[in-house]
Amino acid sequence: MKITLPPHHTSLAQALVSLYGNSVAIAETDRLSGGDINKAYGLTLNTGAHIFMKANSKANADFFTAEAAGLSAIEATGVIKTPEILCTGTDDGEDVGYSFLLLKFIKSAKPRTDYWETFARDLAALHKADTKIFELSGKFGFFQNNFIGARAQNNTPSDSWISFFRDNRLAPQFKDADSYFTAEDRTKITKLLDHLEDFLIEPNQPSLLHGDLWSGNVMCGPEGKAMLIDPAAYIGHAEADLAMTELFGGFPEKFYDAYYEANPLEPGYENRRDLYNLYQLLNHLNLFGPTYLGPVLSIVDEYVS
Predict the structure, then answer these.
(1) How far is 72 from 85, CA to CA, in rounded Å?
(2) pLDDT tens per residue, range 251-305
(3) Is 84 exposed, middle or buried (0-12, 13-18, 19+ CB in 10 A)?
């Protein structure tokens, strides 16, 4: 396994010429729905090729280099599909600069009859894949920082999963959300962070995680099998990915049955699940406001009396 990052170009025109030759031109541009952070387009070229383009401001170019790194990492394991990355880039444009990510356009097919079971086994294989290829200075983290939604996600490596989750996941989110909390809340939060080892466990092996694994970040590919999109990838505990799948409605029971058969979890996962999802809910609190304060405080109270 080897990670290969895509090329980065200084204009969309340069990117297209590099990919398709000097005679390439955009024949049609379609604005696509979906996503609240980036704009999405379907590009049809005069070559007949179809491209999916995500665009944002030039200042947010890191969104796309980080996404490309995450997709490349997942692809490097060879166990689950992701969209083919063509390149990243920036463009000064005629009026305002922008950044972009170009991916091969994916045409969805009808899901296989064993879609969920196959997805579960592929995800389990991702979680069991060797992470030594990432050559980190610690077992957990990633080779670069990235984003969870529109917010920065710190991936400084650590040899301890519990320390990593406290220092790089929960603590920064609690700090940014501090204005929502009372003095009593802050006492409980400090106690939770100081005693995180009472609730979490170190994994038997580190796992490459998608990092933002809900139904909106899974699509059915042309073979009728699940493909992962929009990762917030890092190396952590497989339980964190599984917990995220249960946060917003969950997947069918047959998905979990197949996953647990392929990659059995250690006893007590149900008691740790909400603590993993506390990170995601804190991120939503910081992104979207006090609607998520109640669920955050409920989980804190669940672990700290």
Answers:
(1) 8
(2) 999 999 999 999 999 999 999 999 999 999 999 999 999 999 999 999 999 999 7
(3) middle
Report residue 40 as tokens: 């999405």
What's the pTM? Answer: 0.95
Rounded distance between C-alpha atoms, residue 114 and residue 109, angstroms: 14
30 is catalytic: no
Cα–Cα distance for residue pair 288/269, rounded to 1 Å: 28
Provide the strand spans (E) within 34-106.
39-45, 50-57, 85-91, 98-104
Q: What is the pLDDT of residues 85-143, one digit of tens each?
A: 999 999 997 777 999 999 999 988 899 999 999 999 999 999 999 999 888 999 999 99
Give the active site residue among 212, 230, 241, 274: 212
| Dist. CA 289–CA 286, nearest whole Å | 6
In whole angstroms, give the CA distance from residue 90 to residue 106. Answer: 23
